[in-house]
């Protein structure tokens, strides 16, 4: 058992998850990461638990193991997720839609249901969900991803209302483009339509350009730590300049200005 605050970070083998785990470790947390493979060679600094957020039994087993080892959990960071390569909404099957939501949204739900009883017994806890600015400002050719992150936004807000009287607070972090392996692991649409071939190819180039100047994972990780340590945590935190700009446009700009700005950033026709 430990007197340190205990943190569990899903999807911690690389990217935002790994950066977050390391940031929390430096801040004095007892940190456990998770990945579907469990322990990974050359992984240093924090132990890894095998966990598949799409599997009820796997989630329950990993949380039970953490409680066995530490006796408590003070912070859950729901980071595990994946995206699709640029595609029109009609190019992805219902099966792909279900897979997207099963990881990006239902994974958050499974993890939350597994840890809340322990946090409630403790009378305190923090849950931080890694969302996306695209869950607030949706863009074309990423409809399913935007929808899954929009679901995380709504779930997080409702959950924070429910749990704050139990001493548990919920926050959602909203990054934009981040330099991770996330893009390399994107799934191609399984129902491609030839009419979209040109725009798909063009958008791959646009995204590649954006990734060249994207934020490092540590930018989002620093915001996670800020939310975790805040005495009065906010519900939503943007991470990085691009995300803050999009959030400001959503809040203050006329809808027509935001609409044209989105299409211009993706190099789409701004007419209509």
Automatic annotation (TrEMBL):
In terms of PANTHER family, this protein maps to: SHORT CHAIN DEHYDROGENASE, SHORT-CHAIN DEHYDROGENASE_REDUCTASE FAMILY PROTEIN
Q: What species is given as this protein's source?
A: Marinomonas arctica
Classification via Pfam families? adh_short
* Family the UniProt entry places it in: Belongs to the short-chain dehydrogenases/reductases (SDR) family.
Q: Which terms in the Gene Ontology molecular function aspect does this entry carry?
A: oxidoreductase activity
Q: What is this protein called?
A: Oxidoreductase
InterPro entries assigned: NAD(P)-bd_dom_sf, SDR_fam, SDR_oxidoreductase
The question of whether Thylakoid is a record keyword is answered with no
Question: Which NCBIfam families does the annotation name?
Answer: PRK06179.1 (NF004823)
Q: Which UniProt keywords apply?
A: Oxidoreductase
């Amino acid at each position: 058992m430990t007197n340190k605050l205990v943190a569990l970070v899903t999807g911690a083998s690389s990217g935002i998850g790994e950066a977050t785990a390391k940031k929390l470790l430096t801040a004095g947390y007892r940190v456990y990461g998770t990945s579907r493979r469990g322990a990974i060679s050359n992984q240093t600094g924090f132990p890894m638990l095998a966990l598949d957020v799409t599997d009820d039994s796997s989630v329950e087993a990993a949380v039970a193991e953490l409680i066995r080892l530490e006796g408590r959990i003070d912070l859950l960071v729901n980071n595990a997720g994946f995206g699709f390569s640029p595609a029109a909404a009609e190019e992805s099957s219902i099966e792909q839609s279900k897979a997207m939501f099963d990881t990006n949204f239902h994974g958050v739900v499974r993890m939350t249901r597994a840890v809340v009883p322990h946090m409630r017994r403790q009378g305190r806890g923090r849950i931080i969900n890694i969302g996306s600015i695209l869950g607030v400002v949706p863009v074309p050719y990423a409809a399913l991803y935007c929808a899954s992150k929009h679901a995380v936004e709504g779930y997080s807000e409702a959950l924070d209302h429910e749990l704050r009287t139990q001493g548990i607070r919920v926050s959602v972090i909203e990054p934009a483009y981040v330099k991770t392996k996330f893009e390399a692991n994107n799934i191609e649409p399984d129902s491609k339509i030839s009419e979209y071939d040109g725009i798909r190819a063009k958008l791959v180039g646009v995204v590649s350009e954006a990734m060249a100047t994207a934020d490092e994972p540590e930018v989002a990780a620093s915001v996670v730590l800020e939310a975790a340590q805040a005495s009065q945590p906010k519900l939503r935190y943007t991470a990085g300049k691009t995300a803050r700009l999009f959030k400001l446009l959503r809040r203050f700009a006329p809808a027509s200005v935001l609409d044209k700005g989105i299409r211009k950033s993706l190099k789409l026709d701004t007419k209509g």
